[in-house]
Amino acid sequence: MDLHSHLVPGVDDGSASIDESRASLSALYDEDVRRLVTTPHLILPYLESAAELARELSRHRRSFDGLVAALDGQPGLPTLGLGQEIWAADGDEMRRAAARSDIGLDGSDAMLVEFGFDLRGTHIDVIDAAVAAGRRILIAHVERYRYSDGAEPVDLMRRWRERGALLQVNAGSFTGHYQHSSPGSLELAWEMVAEGLVDVIATDHHGSRRSGVSPREAYHALQAKGKGALAERAMEIVPASLLLRTPSEAG
What we know:
- The protein is of the alpha/beta class.
- 41% of the residues lie in helices and 13% in strands.
- It contains 9 helices and 8 strands.
- Helix 3 (91-98) runs parallel beside helix 4.
- It is globular and about 50 Å long.
């Protein structure tokens, strides 16, 4: 199962077309991904009003529905759901998103949230706002952030989890895929494994125009280090559990 990708065509920096999405989804199916929630960027600082936020969500939904219709009946593709990768800069922005039942991973109460690659502060207020609203929060690609000078990434990750967040790592980080764009991500991903801080592994797939990452390679890398049980939990069991509860059930 994959809870983080950018395969809704034409809405962000991911897939540009239905054909590109189809090719990417087929490749993921060949690597045993059977269910996928695709998560276009929802950048809250750029969506200041409720109307702007609603229009952006509607734009995502229209493109997603067009993709689903175009792929209907085609074999060898994962089952699709729609979510968002939410950029929330502070607790006020998180409260705006958490209050909407049309925001969440495939209709669930779980929200995939990013903080921007250059961290500004701890973002504890974002987590607290989500939890106070009865939402579960999954923090995206935590191994790729540029942590501020003097901050210890693992200590901050522990604080995030203590406040109720789960942590997502990109599959490609376990094989060094992001070492150029995110130096240190390989080492930090494996440090998280050693410290028991990996909750979910996802692809963050951006379509075939970018060099792809392989969930199978990540699984084999973890298995080779005796972490096969972690791979199963973070790539299937925990992701599936995050989709079980709706916002109304959470409230």
